[in-house]
UniProtKB/TrEMBL annotation, chain A:
The keyword Repeat does not apply. GO terms for cellular component: plasma membrane. Belongs to the binding-protein-dependent transport system permease family. The keyword Electron transport does not apply. It is a multi-pass membrane protein. GO terms for biological process: transmembrane transport. Pfam families: BPD_transp_1, BPD_transp_1_N. This is ABC transporter permease. It is found in: Cell membrane. It comes from the Bacteria. Its main location: membrane. Keywords: Cell membrane, Membrane, Transmembrane, Transmembrane helix, Transport. The chain crosses the membrane at residues 12-30, 110-133, 145-168, 188-208, 247-274, 294-318.
UniProtKB/TrEMBL annotation, chain B:
One of its GO terms (molecular function) is ATP binding. One of its GO terms (cellular component) is plasma membrane. Keywords: ATP-binding, Cell membrane, Membrane, Nucleotide-binding, Transport. This is Peptide ABC transporter ATP-binding protein. It is found in: Cell membrane. Its main location: membrane. It comes from Wenjunlia vitaminophila (Streptomyces vitaminophilus). It holds the Pfam family oligo_HPY. The lineage of its organism: Bacteria, Bacillati, Actinomycetota, Actinomycetes, Kitasatosporales. It comes from the Bacteria. GO terms for biological process: peptide transport. Residues 22-270 form the ABC transporter domain.
Length: 325, 353, 403
């Protein structure tokens, strides 16, 4: 197991290096000069050159990349001051350290992802299991058609609708906002409730369909029939035999989903104006804020890679054939 | 010795009550394409300590029949008619709880593929112990001891350590032994084996068939052996039932059916199989055509579209009139006994004598 | 080695007629080997290790196989799953690249021939697969499937491809009207016929048939076996017939080889192998086949009954010396030390080769050998013989019982 984790971590680092290099060089393919933007309206070529030098943009791109990457490990010294070890540079936009901004924004995204994940996992799987258990009945048919409808409900449509219904017209809930959990758990919860539910709509629908499909597939398995032939009750057969086999596809998809949500739920955050990584990513790209874009990008990629490793490790827990080979 | 009794006479060969008695069983599935008549008017009996071989090709209804005995069919799309009595208890229409108490306890089943019939997620020992705990109320420790005992009995070496292995750590033959151990853990009175050796190599198949026979001697269970292989039946079965298109077409003591088969389909099965002895320059005698669709089975005798002998029956009885299967030894065929006897004498291959 | 079969003599008249319109003719007398395989080896590497994955070992699927197939004859290859018979078939058709040894087709070395070098030969060696459901493209019509090989090889037969395909369909017992149908409209037996028609499209001289009937129902198997047999006799096509079913192989092949753990343990003409086998494994295989006529044969001496213990060892780390020794009741110290060569043993026909230090007497009648500890124990309860205690895993301490 340890070997496996070490090997996967090494592989992950390689992947992250490739992603970072790709992002970095892609940035320079954009035909706009961040120094010129930073300079403002009254700008002469000297001040542009100075800004460019201060930003480190006058070095060759590979050198810049090398300095950037080594800064993550060792920290960097800038004219404005030193930047300690996980140094992702300073924002071109507001000169704040990128790492600090990420740390500042992450709790919002984390709260959104965890809460949303909890909602769509429980509701989605629950509905899927009930549909599989009652397959062929009206319950199954209702759930199946409902999930088909919901899976086409986009967040930018459902979000404003829910806001209009629950917040603006009827004032049942307050405007969605982020209050840190440590400050006030109740407000944290009520502020995020709408985003969680809206974020979960499509996920829930997809998890319902996936759970139903994999369970029905598993229930056809010979070993499940064998369990019934041994006299096991329907519940034992369903949960001990069929459910176990359904876990692998579900865990796979869930890991990928959580990985990308941890990197920022762009549409949801934008819809509800939540200050998470998703909005940060959009803003920094629009502002040509290379260090911030790189930071968010690397962070999101790291999350996805970490969750992939977690998923693979979970396989071993679920399936002895993976564990013992 | 091979005369069939008239259909009306009672089964005089059967003094005591049969352990398993199936009467006029019908199984119909509703599918998108229509109603499949998977089993139609099937009757047979089986006593304790006896082995009944059910032979037929895919779609003959042999597996469906035994799944119905266990109540493992899909209840919403399946219509079951007739009677299934196990030790006097009616199983058709019995409640799920009643069936759960019987499954794995009084009646157990072994499926074709030992790899897929064991759950890959639980140890072999746990899967054997599970029905024992459920049906006898034994503790986990007792059940584990019992699982080791059973593994040892079916010939798994070092059962004490192999009990904690997962199925994928077993070879094919060992897996089928483990499945047999699982089926026999509660000393069932009825064991249903559905193609138990088809997925196995010949040398392993021989091991498993011997094992079943030995365990039957020890436990006195009744065994239903479902197979497409007449050779397997010859090895282990006392009685034989040949099924075609959901119906029984011939039955009797296995040795008699194999020695003097009376139904053209049975003839076809025996003559189409290559042998280890006998003439090789003679082409095999295949049964022409393919088994019929059960959505729309042929009228009359279900075998008549493929039967080479139907011209010998006067009129069009084969296509219009369904032949009855006599109780006891006999075949459901319109040919006269004399015609059948002549065929057997002429066609028992020179290679056999 | 001069092990050309002599029994396949039933075909000269037919095959000569068929050869006349075949593109390359018979290529010589029926006795000349069409395919010559020497020391064929295929190892599948296993990778593993830490932190860098490297080659840890190999599955020795085929480990030194010699065989030769004469034109117009059928060579049967039997063995249990994992013995390497299918791999051998795939090596011969060059679907797999051999690790070692040589394959000669009509004297041409094709062991490591490139795609281009193989092109002229590809059409002459065709393959029929086990599963008639997965080996046909469900989106293509029968006409496209059967005509495919002609199209790929740019062959335009006189009268056009379509006409040739319709002829082929007729040859394999399908109706020419099936040309525009799709595979799913056919039963398993008919699909296998389509596969056969496709294999025939290029007038092959050799067909490698890998378990061609084992996925079919009993009554259908005979139809396909008869079809293949007719093709062999009428068109003079040679077959490498790979199957686990000894009776089918016997019916179809003039010469038969038995494989065990990547090696041929015994090869002989049909009658010699089935009536007078010498290798203990062949004995065990033959005695394990259940036979419907065993009862009808009651007045004849009972066939022997041999029950091997345990399972085939892993091909990753096969036993030293003779590979069968771990399950053999005759194994002695020599068997572990020295690998028995595949040679003619005393008392065998000149074409009958056996790889065994202590071959059995040439008969298959009446004798019991029970090596299975559980069975021996169970039999010990009921019969006079005694078995070793349970727990003797795959041990060579056999129980011989005299009855």
């Amino acid at each position: 197991m340890l070997r496996f984790l070490v090997r996967r971590t090494l592989g992950a680092i390689v992947i992250l290096l490739l992603i970072s290099a790709f992002t970095f060089f892609l940035f320079y393919a954009v035909p706009r000069d961040p120094a010129l933007l930073a300079c403002g309206k009254n700008c002469d070529s000297e001040s542009v050159a100075l800004i460019r030098h201060n930003m480190g943009l006058d070095d060759p791109i590979p050198v810049q990349y090398w300095e950037y990457m080594s800064g993550i490990v060792t920290g960097r010294d800038f004219a404005a001051g030193s930047c300690p070890a996980p140094c992702l540079g300073y924002s071109f936009d507001d000169s704040a350290p990128v790492w600090d901004t990420l740390v500042d924004r992450f709790p919002t995204t984390l709260s959104l992802a965890l809460g949303g994940g909890a909602v769509f996992l429980t509701v989605g799987l629950g509905a899927g299991l009930i549909a599989a258990w009652k397959r062929g009945t009206w319950v199954d048919k209702t759930f199946s058609s409902l999930s088909l409808v919901l899976s086409s409900m986009q967040i930018y449509f459902v979000g404003p609708l829910v806001l209009a219904l629950l917040v603006y017209n009827n004032e049942i809930l307050g405007q969605p906002s982020y209050v840190p959990f440590t400050e006030n758990p109740v407000e944290w919860f009520s502020g995020l409730l709408i985003p969680w539910c809206v974020l979960s709509v499509i996920f829930t629908a997809n998890y319902t369909r996936m759970a139903r499909a994999t369970m029905i597939e598993q229930l056809q398995e010979e070993h499940v029939r064998m369990a019934r032939a041994k006299g096991m009750s329907g519940r034992t057969v369903f949960f001990r035999y069929a459910w176990r086999g359904s876990l692998i596809p579900i865990v796979t998809i869930f890991g990928v989903d959580m990985g990308s949500l941890f990197g920022g739920a762009i549409i949801t955050e934008a819809t509800f104006a939540l200050p998470g990584l998703g909005t940060l990513a959009v803003d920094s790209v629009q502002e040509l804020d290379l260090p911030m874009t790189m930071g968010v990008m690397l962070f999101a990629a790291t999350m996805i890679v970490i969750f992939n490793i977690i998923v693979d490790a979970t396989y071993a827990l679920i399936d002895p054939r993976v564990r013992l080979s | 010795m091979t005369t069939s009794r008239p259909p009306t006479s009672p089964a005089e060969t059967d003094p005591g009550d049969p352990f398993l008695s199936v009467r006029d069983l019908g199984v119909r599935f509703s599918t998108e394409d229509g109603v499949v008549r998977a089993v139609d008017g099937l009757s047979f009996e089986l006593r304790r300590g006896q082995t009944l071989g059910i032979v037929g090709e895919s779609g003959s209804g042999k597996s469906v029949t035994m799944l119905t005995v266990l109540g493992l069919h899909e209840p919403r799309t399946t219509e079951v008619t007739g009677q299934i009595r196990l030790d006097g208890q009616e199983l058709v229409g019995a409640g799920e709880r009643t069936l759960q108490r019987l499954r794995g306890n009084t009646m157990a089943m072994i499926f074709q593929d030992p790899l897929t019939s064991l759950s890959p997620y639980h140890t072999v020992g746990r899967q054997i112990a599970e029905p024992y705990i459920k049906h006898t109320g034994a503790s986990r420790r007792q059940a584990r001891a019992r699982a080791i005992e059973m593994l040892d009995k079916v010939g798994i070496p070092r059962a004490g350590t192999r009990v904690d292995d997962y199925p994928h750590q077993f070879s094919g033959g060992m897996r089928q032994r483990a499945v047999i151990a699982m089926a026999l853990v509660c000393n069932p009175d009825l064991l249903i084996a559905d193609e138990p050796t088809t997925a196995l190599d010949v040398t392993v198949q021989a091991q498993i068939l011997d094992l079943l026979a030995d365990l039957q001697q020890e436990f006195g269970s009744a065994i239903v052996l479902i197979t497409h292989d007449l050779g397997v039946v010859a090895d282990v079965a006392d009685d034989l039932l040949v099924m075609y298109a959901g119906r029984a077409v011939e039955r009797g003591p296995a040795a008699e059916v194999l020695r003097s088969p009376q139904h053209p389909y049975t003839w076809g099965l025996l003559e189409s199989v290559p042998r280890l002895t006998g003439d090789v320059d003679q082409p095999l005698a295949p049964i022409p055509g393919a088994p019929p669709s059960l959505l729309d089975p042929p009228p009359g005798c279900p075998f008549h579209p493929r039967c080479a002998h139907r011209q010998r029956v006067p009129g069009d009885a084969c296509a219009t009139e369904r032949p009855e299967l006599p109780v006891g030894r006999g075949a459901a065929c319109h040919l006269s006994l004399e015609q059948r006897r002549t065929h057997v004498i002429e066609h028992r291959q020179p290679g056999l004598g | 080695m001069g092990n050309e079969p002599t029994t396949g003599a039933a075909l000269p008249a037919d095959s000569a007629a068929a050869d006349a319109d075949a593109p390359l003719g018979g290529g010589g007398s029926p006795g000349e080997p069409l395919l010559e395989v020497r020391g064929l080896v295929k190892h599948f590497p296993i990778h593993g290790g830490f932190p860098i994955r490297r080659r840890m070992g190999a599955v020795r699927a085929v480990d030194g196989v010699d065989l030769s197939i004469a034109a117009g004859t059928s060579f049967g290859l039997v063995g249990e799953s994992g013995c390497g018979k299918s791999t051998t078939g795939r090596l011969v058709t060059r679907l797999l690249e051999p690790t070692g040894g040589s394959i000669h087709y009509r004297g041409t070395d094709i062991t490591h021939a490139s795609r281009r070098e193989l092109a002229p030969i590809r059409s002459q060696i065709q393959m029929i697969f086990q599963d008639p459901y997965s080996s046909l493209n469900p989106r293509q019509t029968v006409g496209t499937i059967v005509g495919g090989p002609m199209e790929i090889n740019g062959i335009n037969p006189p009268g056009g491809r379509e006409r040739r395909v319709r002829e082929l369909l007729e040859t394999v017992g399908l109706s020419p009207e099936h040309y525009n149908r799709f595979p799913h409209e056919f039963s398993g037996g008919q699909r296998q016929r389509i596969g056969v028609a496709r294999a025939l499209a290029l007038d092959p001289r050799l067909i490698v048939a890998d378990e061609p009937v084992s996925a079919l129902d009993v009554s259908i198997q005979a139809q396909v076996v008869n079809l293949l047999q007719r093709l062999q006799r009428e068109l003079g096509i040679a077959f490498l017939f790979i199957a686990h079913d000894l009776a089918v192989v016997r019916h179809f092949s003039q010469r038969v080889a038995v494989m065990y753990l990547g090696k041929i343990v015994e090869v002989a003409d049909r009658d010699a192998l089935y009536r007078r086998p010498r290798h203990p494994y062949t004995h065990a295989l033959l005695s394990a086949v259940p036979q419907a006529d065993a009862l009808a044969d009651a007045e004849h001496p009972r066939r022997e009954r041999i029950r091997l213990a345990g399972d085939v060892p892993s091909p990753i780390d096969p036993p030293s010396g003779c590979r069968f020794r771990t399950r053999c009741w005759k194994a002695e110290e020599l068997c572990a030390r020295q690998e028995p060569p595949l040679v003619v043993r005393d008392g065998s026909d000149p074409n009958h080769l056996t790889a065994c230090h202590f071959p059995e007497p040439p008969t298959t009648l009446g004798r019991d050998v029970i090596l299975d500890p559980a069975l021996a124990a169970a039999e010990g309860v009921t019969g006079p013989g005694t078995g070793p205690g349970p727990g003797a895993e795959a041990a060579p301490d056999a129980t011989r019982k005299a009855r």
